[in-house]
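User: Please predict the structure of the protein below. I'd like the answer in structure-token form so I can feed it into my own downstream comparison script.

Assistant: Understood. Taking the following sequence of 233 residues as input:
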Amino acid sequence: MATDELSSKLSRRLQIEEGAEEPVAVDGPGHHNGSEEKPSTANADSELGAKLFRRGELNEGIGEHSQPSMKIFNPYTEFKEFSRKQIKDMETLFKTYDAGKDNYIDLMELKLMMEKLGAPQTHIGLKNMIKEVDEDLDNKLSFREFLLIFRKAAAGELAEDSGLCALARLSEIDVSTEGVKGAKTFFEAKVKAINESNRFEAEIRQEQEEKKKQAEEQKQRRAAFKELQSAFK
């Protein structure tokens, strides 16, 4: 097997380095009078040795396989200053102008959005709008970056004459509610945090109750229809 062959090569190389065994010179075409070994052969042996050593570490549990980090974005936990309804409204607005359905709003889609909202922007103005919240520097807006616009608007961090301020103002989404950051003292912040948590749980319960009510009404309609259907048989 390939692993056994690699192990054999590494073992032989270690014996040669320790002086337990003499290296054997192999004459090939174009090699006379003890010509030096090609650098590429030495590099290949070194690379094979490093790979085999790494494999041994992994097998013994010393090393760890590297995995790409996957961070899941949850708008409800990261943007606690907004209610679930506010975030859903922002998501609806975002998806409305995400014409490419790639979960991003690019410059042309932002241009269309601002025109529809009645606040058209120049090309430079649109680029500056994206730049202000473009954390990953990909020249387009993700949903998280889109939410940052409303966070900045709620915190009063946007210039009144800026394109982002116009977007937040004309979107008809009320973001006047300040979050925990707006509390003046530590104790006010703690109380506000508790209230935010309770409000979040209450909104979830309300959504569950509405779904339950809708399911019950649908069940009753089906039962009534079956009863009416059986009456005509």
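That's the full token string. The longest helix spans residues 186-231.
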